[in-house]
Amino acid sequence: MSTIAIVSQKGGSGKTTLAVNLAAAAEAAGQIALIIDTDPQATASQWGAWRADRAPEVIDSAPPRIEAKVKAAKAQGATFIVIDTPPHADSAASRAVEVADLVLIPCRPSAFDLAAIKTTVSLVRLFDKPAYVVFTAGPPHAPRMYEEAVELVQGFGIEACPHILPDRAVNRHASAAGASVIEFEPEGKAAAEIRALHMWTIAHVNTSTTAQEGV
Amino acid sequence: MSRFANLADKPKTKPKEVQSSMSNVDGAATSSATSASPRSSSRAGRKAIAAYFSPEMSLAMHLCARKNGLSLQELMAEAFDDVLRKYGESPVGY
Predict the structure, then answer these.
(1) Residue A205 in contact with residue A161, Cβ under 8 Å?
(2) Do the chains contact at B62 and A32, CB–CB below 8 Å?
(3) Can you tell me the ipTM of this complex?
């Protein structure tokens, strides 16, 4: 059972894209996934409505009810819960981080976006949760740039996830069709990237919840 | 089909008939019922005080409230009373 919070104080960092595709990857891997949408803009819920509530299911939640919903969803069989949060919403973000096993911080590999993750880093520190920056919406082939971005992230005292989700047209096409990238283009690169990220996420939730070390 | 629909805050499909029957129940007050969204009774007769701060300040206030089991409103009320005392005014307390 894993609860993943997707948190970033910056808008347009790919939170919802990451949330829905990660949950879809979990569902494709045989888990029972649920997306809890705490964003008043309800982007993830819109995606859920477009796909006529085909799994992974999306439910909304006001921040104070997140914890109770996670518990109830676990009791109803959910094995992989992704909490999507709005930007600049400290209440939703802190409640999501509080219940999460792992926090993923999507971030574009640009100086402005990287500088904005400081606030998010202080939030995950306060709750002492394992957290990783996931680079999103950047160019697919730019190893030097990602090396620099990783160094910058480490300078904030946080690690970057080794799997990136670069900008790919299939992300937009899939979202518009109410699909995940795995459903839209199962053999595509984006599908392979999100599968790899999902596997990595599962491995990290297991190690961080059983070992509780690395402080 | 939908395993977790019972956990949603809002129903996923908007039941339009329910809304129309609700306004019929109001009877005489139909004109006002259609214009205004329902307001929480805890806000009746009260005024909003809003201000813009840095994300750090917002985060710190939300977390402080959460840690002490208070709402942001209760925390702000406490802060306002403190500052009133600091400047030699009487605290208001609510």
Answers:
(1) no
(2) no
(3) 0.70
User: What tens digit of pLDDT does each residue of A33-74 get?
Assistant: 999 999 888 889 988 888 887 889 999 998 889 999 999 999
Smallest CA-to-CA distance from B12 within A44, A67, A64 is with A44
Structural tokens at position A78: 């959910």
Has residue B28 got a pLDDT over 50? no
A99: nearest Cα among A116, A124, A120: A124
Mean pLDDT of chain A: 88
Can you tell me which residue has the tokens 């104080």?
Answer: A9
- Which residue type is seen at B14? K
Structural domain spans, chain B = 49-94
> Tokens for A145?
């740039």
A103 close to A88: Cβ distance less than 8 angstroms: no
Put simply, the answer to whether A59 touches B63 (Cβ < 8 Å) is no
Alpha-carbon distance A200 to nearest alpha carbon in chain B (angstroms): 26
| B16's tokens | 């339009």
- pLDDT given for residue B1 in this prediction: 58
Q: Tell me how far apart the alpha carbons of residues B61 and B57 are, in angstroms, rounded to a whole number.
A: 6
- Whether residue A35 lies within 8 A of chain B, CB to CB, comes out as no
